[in-house]
Specification:
The protein is of the alpha/beta class and 259 residues long. The chain has eight helices and five strands. 34% of the residues lie in helices and 12% in strands. Helix 2 runs parallel beside helix 4 and helix 6 runs antiparallel to helix 8. The longest helix is centred in the N-terminal third of the chain and has 18 residues.
Length: 259
């Protein structure tokens, strides 16, 4: 009954579904179907793309949660038979979440179909204002992603994103069991200049900063803070030049900000 009490006091962010209605939208290579796809890598890639887009918009990243990904996987499999936010048993999508496992104040779901890669699927969501609003929702803190491939089904590939705003009064420190950032996103600097998150400020950080300025790599929000060597709110080649001087010993200190 606790779940129903929560439902009465929240506003659920329900987004509409993207549906691929043309066979040309199915880019899956039939020859690759014999190999087992790395679904974990595919879903982690979606989470990385979400956080990359949020970082560009100045938003906090969203944690991935194994429990929510299990639910999202179940929802993706359900979408093979019933493509929509209402489950086959008549329940709304959010009723799949056990409040005791993941206490939430708000929830949202994005679904998509037809595309075989995380990048193509993410572009579907990017090009839909309602789906993009969920990805850019500043209230969401945790998410799960699911994907399934069903040969012979109407759309072949089915994807689900399940978002929640965690209830910090029920979840200790706002954390959920097993929460993590995908490997691409786990570089967590400890101070200004430690851009690659290895606890040191050296030439590797300088190279990464130059790559960022040249558009060769993306940085997560903590890395962006660390790359602001002059702590003036912008990242330019002046930051790179000062970092280089520090590494070469031409200057003794940098304006250090601890994270």
């Amino acid at each position: 009954m606790k779940k129903m009490n929560v439902f009465r006091r929240v506003v659920t962010a329900l987004t509409t579904a993207i549906m691929t209605v043309s066979a040309t939208g199915l880019t899956f290579n039939a020859n690759a179907a014999e190999e087992t796809p790395d679904f974990q890598a595919m879903t982690d890639r979606i989470i990385y793309l979400v956080n990359e887009a949020r970082a560009e918009a100045g938003l906090d990243p969203i944690y991935a949660v194994p429990y929510l990904s299990e639910l999202a996987e179940e929802r993706a499999e359900e979408c093979v038979g019933t493509f929509g936010h209402v489950r086959a048993n008549g329940d709304a999508f959010y009723e799949i979440i056990d409040y005791e496992e993941a206490p939430w104040l708000g929830a949202g779901e994005n679904i998509a179909s037809g595309m075989s890669t995380p990048e193509a699927t993410f572009e579907q969501w990017r090009n839909s204002p309602s789906h993009w609003a969920s990805i850019m929702n500043p209230s969401y803190t945790h998410m799960g992603v699911g994907v399934t491939y069903a040969p012979g089904s109407e759309y072949g590939w089915y994807w689900t994103q399940l978002f929640i705003e965690v209830d910090t009064f029920e979840a200790e420190d706002g954390k959920l069991e097993g929460q993590y950032y995908p490997d691409e996103y786990q570089m967590m600097p400890c101070a200004t200049g430690d851009i690659n998150g290895d606890g040191m400020v050296d030439s590797f950080d300088f190279v990464m900063l130059c790559q960022y300025l040249n558009g060769q790599v993306t940085l997560n929000p903590r890395q962006i803070e660390s790359a602001d060597i002059l702590v003036d709110g912008v990242i330019t080649y002046s930051d790179a030049a000062y970092l280089r001087k520090y590494i070469l010993g031409a200057v003794e200190t940098i304006p250090v900000k601890l994270f």
